[in-house]
Amino acid sequence: MLDIPPPVPSIEFNLASTGMSKGLAQTDGPQAVVRGELAFGSLYLGAYAKNVDSSSSDGEAAALIGFRTKAGGFDLSASAAWKRAIHPAADSDADALEVSAAIARPMAAFTPRVSIVWSPDDLGSTGHTIFAEAGASYRMAKTLTASAAIGRRERQGGADYTAWNAGLSWVPAKRVALDLRYYDTDGGNTHPFKARVVATARLKF
């Protein structure tokens, strides 16, 4: 008989001064993200919703399935999400499949990480897209971590670009995390490509 661990529910609230995704700004102002999850050991089911300032929609929601595990000293994760645009424009794609995977290797205070996100036909007017990112984090203290990453996105129906970010994350309490991060791209000084500093607060139960 299959031994399924008991479910462990969680819910997370994020508020950012600017919504960011794959190195680009998703909002002109603040973004709120609500994410729920039900974990069964390494396997989990999840869903999220967030506001987006876009000509093709007012927001985005998704349902996803994924797993997280450890093997040979590596942290491994992967997920598949079905995304849905909220109030989509009449001529844009309202649904999209997005698949992601990541691998990290904790080495004392230092952790390098590589991830990839792929969609055969993304939301809005964007078709096939792939975003690959490499980065690392360094735990400076028990509650303070510095991190940086650089990524490349290639997409059909939109400009290709390289994006990078660097910042600090602070965990002042068990369920609270704060992040201050600088983002930039090689896409020029126009929204959503221009450089910006983003502050994010997360509350997780």
Describe it for me?
This protein has strands spanning 8-16, 20-21, 24-25, 31-40, 43-51, 59-71, 74-86, 95-104, 110-119, 129-141, 144-155, 161-173, 176-185, 196-204. With 205 residues, the chain is mainly beta. Strands 1-4-5-6-7-8-9-10-11-12-13-14 form a 12-stranded antiparallel beta barrel. A hairpin with a 2-residue loop joins strand 6 (59-71) and strand 7 (74-86).
How are the SSEs placed, and which strands pair?
Blueprint: E1 8-16, E2 20-21, E3 24-25, E4 31-40, E5 43-51, E6 59-71, E7 74-86, E8 95-104, E9 110-119, E10 129-141, E11 144-155, E12 161-173, E13 176-185, E14 196-204
Antiparallel strand pairs: 1-4, 1-14, 2-3, 4-5, 5-6, 6-7, 7-8, 8-9, 9-10, 10-11, 11-12, 12-13, 13-14
List SSEs in N-to-C order: EEEEEEEEEEEEEE
CATH class: Mainly Beta
Mean pLDDT: 95
Strand order of the largest sheet: 1-4-5-6-7-8-9-10-11-12-13-14
Strand element count: 14
The stretches of 5 or more residues where confidence is low (pLDDT under 50) are none
**CATH superfamily label:** Inverse autotransporter, beta-domain
The CATH architecture: Beta Barrel
Helix count from the secondary structure assignment: 0
